[in-house]
Amino acid sequence: MTTHIPTYSICNLIDEFNNMQDCVVLDLQEFISEKPDLVTSPHRHSFYQILFILEGTGEHFIDFKTHTIQKGDLYFLVPGQIHKWIFDVTACGIVINFNHNFFSSFLARRNYLEDFPFFIGNGEYSKVSLQNKFVDTQQIFNKIQTEYKACNECSWDLLRLYLLELFIISNRVINTEHFIKIENKHQFLLLRNFEKLVEENYKQKKLPKDYAEMLFVTPNHLNALCQKIKGISAGELIRNRILLEIKRLLVNSSLTISEIAYELNYQDNSYFSRFFKKNTGFSPEEFRASKYV
C-alpha cells in the first residue's frame, strides 16, 4: 500500500555528501532549479522547515490553506504538514531544514521549541509577516548563511543561537498581532496553554470541559476567552484541530475510513462520517477523491 503524498527527510532533499547533517541551509533559487517538481507537488517533511522570502511573489499552500507570498514573509513548517510552493520567476529566499536533534542536545528543556506557536501542529501561525523587521531579519539570515558556509569551530552553536533569535523575534510579532486583545499575562498564558493541550490531547479529549478541568477554569471562562481573542468558541478550536488531522490522514495515508476513525478515537464510524461532512461539506470518501491541495 502506498501513500498519496510523499514524505521527505533532510537526507533525500540534499546530496549524498551532506546527508548526515541535522541542519541544512539552502538558497531558494538553487533549490527550485534543482528540484522543480518537488517544490510544486504536494509533499510533507519529517523535519522542520523555515522559508524566508527576500523577493518575488507567489503562493504557498499549507494544510489546505493558500497563503499569498510577499517580501518579508517567514514560513514555519513542522513535521507532517502538507505543503507546496508556486513562485514567480523573480522569487528568491532562504530555506532552512533542521531535525529535532539539532536542538535537543543544545537546550536543557527538551520541548522548548513546542512553546513557540509556529511549532504547534495546527498550522495557524505558519506564516509570520516581518516586513516591518525585514532588515533585521535579513541580517540574521545572512549570519546563518555565513556560519553554515564557514563550518568553523562552534559554527553550529552560533547557527543555533541565530535561529533562536529568529524564533523569539517571530514569537513577539505573533504575540503583538494575534493577542492584542489580551488584557493581562494570565489570559495570554491560558490561551497558549489551551492550544498546546489541544495539540497534545485532541485524539482523546474532544470537549471544552475536559480542557477547562486541566486548566483549572470553568468551561464558560475558557469559551469566553476564545471568543474574545480568537473569534471562535473553545469547541470550534478543538474541532478545527480534529478536522485538520482527519484531512491529513485522508490524503496522507492508505488507512481506511474506519481506521482513521479508530485512530482519532471515534467508536462509531457513521457518527465520524457525519461529523466530517457537517463541518466540511464533504464525506470522507469525497474529500479523499477531491483535489485536496
UniProtKB/TrEMBL annotation:
Name of this chain's protein: Helix-turn-helix domain-containing protein
Record keywords, A-Z: DNA-binding, Transcription, Transcription regulation
Lineage: Bacteria, Pseudomonadati, Bacteroidota, Sphingobacteriia, Sphingobacteriales
Any Pfam family the entry gives: AraC_binding
Signal peptide: none
PANTHER family xrefs: ARAC-FAMILY TRANSCRIPTIONAL REGULATOR, TRANSCRIPTIONAL REGULATORY PROTEIN
Keyword DNA-binding: yes
Domain HTH araC/xylS-type: 192-290
Source domain of life: Bacteria
